[in-house]
C-alpha cells in the first residue's frame, strides 16, 4: 500500500466514524429527555456530519475518480465502510448514549490534538477546525457522565452497566495496521500506543469523579471495523440512511 492509498483509507475512517455516530445521535431528535438536551445532542450530531463532509471530500480528491461526498455516504455497501464498532452501538437509553459518547469524544479529543501536528497540512487543518467542536462534545457528555454516575442509585447503575459493556470497545481505536504503519513513516498520524495511554488516563480521571469503576472482566473486544467487518447494527443504519437515494437514484431536490 502506498501513502496516497493509505491516506485515502484514513480519511474514510475519520468520515465513517463521524457519520455513523452522527446518525445514532440524530435518533435522539425529538426523543431527548428534555428540550435543551434534545437540541444539544442534535447539534453534536450536526458537528459530526460537518466533519464527515470534509473527510469525504478530502477522500474523493485523493481517489481522483470523480466521486462526491454523497457517493461515499449513500452508495457504498456495508463492507466498504470503515467505521469502528463503538459508533454503531445502539442508543438503548440516555445513560448508554452518554457512556458511548464520552468514550468516543475522549478519543476524538486526543486524536485531533495529535493530528494538529500532522505533516499533512490538510489533515492538520481539519484537526484544528474539528477540535473546536470536539472540545465541547467532551465537556458536555463527560459532565453528564458525572451527573449520572454520582446521581441516584438508578442512574449510577445504568451508566455502570453500560460502561461494563462498552469499555472494551476502545481497543479498536488504537489498532495498528498497514494504513497506520504507512502514514506513521512520515508523521502523518501519531504514535497510537502513546495515544492509548493518554486516552485511558483521561477517561479514568472522569470515571473517578463519576464514582464509576472499570469492569473486573472485559467483554467483547471489537475489531475488524477498519477493514469492513461490522456488527449487525451497521446494516440496519445504512438501510435507513441510504433508503431515499437508493429508491430514487440520481434524483435532485
Describe the structure in your own words.
The chain is mostly helical. It has one domain: Up-down Bundle (Ferritin). It has eleven helices and no strands. Helix 1 packs antiparallel against helix 2. The N and C termini lie far apart (39 Å).
Q: How would you summarize this macromolecular structure in one to three sentences?
A:
With 253 residues, the chain is mainly α. 66% of the residues lie in helices and 0% in strands. The chain is built from eleven helices and no strands.
Would you list the SSEs in sequence order as H and E?
HHHHHHHHHHH
Query: What's the tally of helices?
Result: 11
Q: Specify the helix fraction band.
A: 55-70%
Architecture, according to CATH? Up-down Bundle
Shape descriptor reads globular
Give the strand content: under 5%
Give the C-alpha Rg: 18 Å
Biggest pleated sheet = none
Query: Which fold name corresponds to the CATH topology?
Result: Ferritin
Name given to the CATH homologous superfamily = Ferritin, core subunit, four-helix bundle
CATH top-level class: Mainly Alpha
Q: Uncertain segments of ≥5 residues (pLDDT<50)? A: none
| Broad structural category | mainly alpha
First-last Cα distance: 39 Å
Amino acid at each position: 500500500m502506498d501513502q496516497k492509498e493509505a491516506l485515502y483509507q484514513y480519511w474514510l475512517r475519520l468520515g465513517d466514524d463521524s457519520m455513523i455516530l452522527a446518525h445514532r445521535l440524530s435518533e435522539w431528535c425529538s426523543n431527548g429527555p428534555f428540550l435543551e438536551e434534545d437540541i444539544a445532542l442534535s447539534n453534536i450530531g450536526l458537528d459530526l456530519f460537518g466533519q464527515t463532509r470534509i473527510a469525504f471530500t478530502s477522500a474523493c480528491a485523493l481517489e481522483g475518480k470523480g466521486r462526491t461526498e454523497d457517493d461515499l455516504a449513500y452508495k457504498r455497501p456495508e463492507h466498504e465502510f470503515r467505521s469502528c464498532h463503538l459508533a454503531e452501538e445502539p442508543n438503548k437509553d440516555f445513560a448508554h448514549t452518554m457512556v458511548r459518547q464520552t468514550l468516543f469524544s475522549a478519543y476524538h479529543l486526543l486524536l485531533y490534538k495529535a493530528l494538529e501536528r500532522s505533516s499533512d497540512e490538510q489533515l492538520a487543518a481539519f484537526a484544528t477546525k474539528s477540535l473546536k467542536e470536539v472540545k465541547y462534545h467532551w465537556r458536555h457528555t463527560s459532565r453528564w457522565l458525572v451527573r449520572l454516575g454520582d446521581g441516584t442509585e438508578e442512574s449510577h447503575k445504568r451508566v455502570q452497566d453500560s460502561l461494563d459493556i462498552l469499555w472494551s470497545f476502545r481497543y479498536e481505536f488504537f489498532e495498528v495496521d498497514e494504513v497506520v504503519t504507512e502514514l506513521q513513516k512520515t508523521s502523518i498520524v501519531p504514535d497510537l500506543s502513546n495515544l492509548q495511554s493518554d486516552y485511558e488516563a483521561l477517561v479514568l480521571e472522569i470515571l473517578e469523579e463519576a464514582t464509576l469503576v472499570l469492569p473486573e472482566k472485559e467483554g467483547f473486544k471489537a475489531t475488524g471495523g477498519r477493514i469492513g467487518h461490522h456488527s449487525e447494527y451497521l446494516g440496519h443504519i445504512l438501510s435507513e440512511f441510504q433508503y431515499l437515494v437508493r429508491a430514487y437514484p440520481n434524483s435532485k431536490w
